[in-house]
Sequence to fold (329 residues):
Amino acid sequence: MAENVLSINNLKTQFSTQDGTVYAVDGLSFDVVAGQIVGLVGESGCGKSTVAMSIMRLLPRQGQIVDGQIRVGGRDLVPLTEPQMQKVRGNDIAMIFQDALTTLNPTMKVGRHLIQPLQIHRKMDERAARAYAIELLDHVGIPDPAARMETYPHELSGGMRQRVMIAMALSCDPKLLIADEPTTALDVTIQRQIMDLILRLRDETGAGIVLITHDVGVVAEVCDRVVVMYAGKEVESGPTEEIFMRPRHPYTIGLLNSSLGLNDDRTQPLQAIPGLPPSLVHLPEGCRFAPRCRHATDQCRQMPPLEMVRADHAAACWHKEEVYAEFTQ
Ligand code: SF4
Fold:
């Protein structure tokens, strides 16, 4: 059986603001095994990126993990000091951010972005690090990699910059890769290429991947498992095909109806989910999706528990079987 590279248990991350406490992640649990891609999906503001920043321990000053464990390779990261985390980042976990242009240092050549971490984490000398950096750029499909080492990020296209970030993320052979909206800023053709690259690298390296996205179509095509988040909570999770063929939560169905796959016809209109996600400071009582849910009843004034509906498929909805029955009609 493949080992868990990531195990999150009852994670609670909060932010202190002038308006009150923001309950950004509220009791989330999931695992990622080696070689698996787990999609974390939900609308903007549902807490997905806070999960990524909690794993990386890169929360802003107002943010705090107040409960739970984040185990990477069996070690809980939550109690680690910043110097200890610096060793974990890059060595055990790497992250691909959404916008390469703002993540890469505009004053630093592409080569230096790759050489520095190799010198720090893998103790390579300049010559060996340079040679390996060229190999990495070649590996992620950058043409003429030796010449690209001498360019600045703004001289590359969006797709090429994303490939540079992926090369950086892979440079220290991490066990766990977190990709936060890695294709959002790219056009459709380049999205396809970047997702194909991530899949190929998963197969070659055996790394576990957390893919954070609002795009259910991307999840359907590349993820082994999916965790659907709404207002800081997991509302449904399981194997991707099971979740998409037999969804039990109205929010999952709403996301499915409002998304396109990478190969879908983009001229067809999408169905939006009515309303907006709630404020994470002033959360509704009971089911957080209730104000937007046409299946809501009085029972939904109580928080629905996350329950197994089939082997390995969990959903948090009081009316999951009626919701599923309607979906299959
Ligand atoms: S518990 Fe009620 S309000 Fe919440 S998703 Fe299910 S039916 Fe809708």
Notes: Residues 249-250, 287, 289-290, 293, 295-296, 300, 304, 317-319 surround iron/sulfur cluster (CB under 6 Å). The chain has two domains: 4-92+174-328, 102-173. The chain has a mean pLDDT of 90.
